[in-house]
Amino acid sequence: MAFIFKDDKLLIGLRNYTPDKWKKISVWTAPGGRCDNGETLETTLRREVYEEVGINDLKFTDYLGSVPGAKEGDVIFVFKAETNQEPKL
């Protein structure tokens, strides 16, 4: 996941999990997602951010750490990034 800043504003989105997913909830979160086979963390984040909010101009500025994911065995790697682009909603 990437905490993306533009002009000192943080981009977050409301992620809705439907009943066919693992839980039926909505949560505020930063963009991110699962790695495809053979992808690096950076490639994954760039792809996921573009798919979710249309931003392809990212500058990763810091690795903030990792936390356990919601599913057993998942790990969420957290980065800070900056952009000059507006998200497409």
From TrEMBL:
Keywords tagged on the record: Hydrolase
Gene Ontology molecular function, alphabetical: hydrolase activity
InterPro entries in the cross-refs: Nudix_hydrolase, NUDIX_hydrolase-like_dom_sf, NUDIX_hydrolase_CS, NUDIX_hydrolase_dom
The Nudix hydrolase domain, residue ranges: 1-89
Pfam families per record: NUDIX
Family listed: Belongs to the Nudix hydrolase family.
Protein name in UniProt: Nudix hydrolase domain-containing protein
